[in-house]
Specification:
It is a single chain. Helix 3 runs parallel beside helix 4 (80-89). The chain contains 8 helices and 9 strands. The radius of gyration is 17 Å and the shape is globular. Strand 2, helix 4 (80-89) and strand 3 (94-99) form a beta-alpha-beta unit. By secondary structure, it is α/β, with parallel strands linked by helices. The protein has helices at 18-28, 34-46, 52-65, 80-89, 102-112, 128-133, 151-158, 191-203; strands at 3-4, 70-74, 94-99, 121-125, 139-144, 162-170, 181-182, 208-213, 219-224.
Length: 228
């Protein structure tokens, strides 16, 4: 049964108790680096949405767990998630990044070149879905963090081009609790319903095993099944 929006504000319906998040954040502080801190400070200054330290570490761990060498990012911002993926894919791996703003591509180079990670990226400016259609081959990981109304489209595009044993990962799948309340107040009309459809499609797909990590705003991970 869903929770009534009249008794719970969906903007404060957090899946993990703030004290637990703070504890985990304290553990993650051990990964500090000057470049990472500068990227996070910029996000705070501009109120720019990044996945944050805990989710970044999770992405890196997931990529390492499947030996990822080729990652496609649907939506890269100025390279915060790519910072984590690039570490995981190694010097021979590639992270294909996309963003509609050329300024974000320039910022990504500014941050990731000194970190020794820029050479592992291919950053294209444009709509992520169009870049993906124009890019050949399969991927170890497809990561989705575009406008939420496009989530079902991205899943349908990506699912057939994830290699067996590879992963589909998407951020914001709990959408600040809106997926769990009745009559949620949406930031953009239709976005909550799009996320709900996206999540249903993934969990109903017999070719994938899926789960949601509730950290921050919810990260879905779906592994494409391998042959028995």
């Amino acid at each position: 049964m869903s929770i009534s929006a009249t008794t719970h504000n969906p903007t404060v319906l957090v899946p993990v108790h703030p004290a637990i998040e703070a504890y985990l954040g304290g553990l993650a502080a051990n990964t500090d680096s000057p470049i990472l801190l500068e990227m996070e400070q910029l996000a705070a200054r501009l109120n720019f949405p990044i996945i944050g330290r805990l989710c970044g570490m999770f992405l890196k761990a997931m990529a390492l767990s499947v030996g990822a060498r080729r990652v496609f990012e649907f939506g890269s911002g100025y390279g915060y998630s790519a910072y984590w993926f690039a570490q995981a894919v190694g010097s021979e791996g590639r992270v294909l990044c996309t963003d509609g703003d050329a300024d974000n591509a320039a910022k990504a180079e500014y941050f990731l070149r000194p970190a020794g990670l820029w050479e592992r990226l291919e950053f294209q400016v444009g709509r992520a879905q169009e870049v993906f259609r124009a890019t050949s081959g399969d991927f170890d990981i497809c990561y989705n963090d575009v406008d939420k109304g496009d989530y079902p489209e991205v899943w349908r595009l990506a699912r057939d081009r994830i290699r067996p044993g590879g992963l589909y990962i998407a951020d914001n799948v709990l959408w600040h609790g809106r997926v769990a309340v009745e009559n949620p107040v949406d930031i953009v009309p239709g976005w909550t319903e799009a996320i709900l459809e996206h999540n249903r499609l993934i969990f109903g797909d017999p070719e994938f095993d899926a789960f949601v990590n509730p950290t921050r705003d919810g990260v879905i991970v779906a592994r494409r099944k391998t042959a028995d």
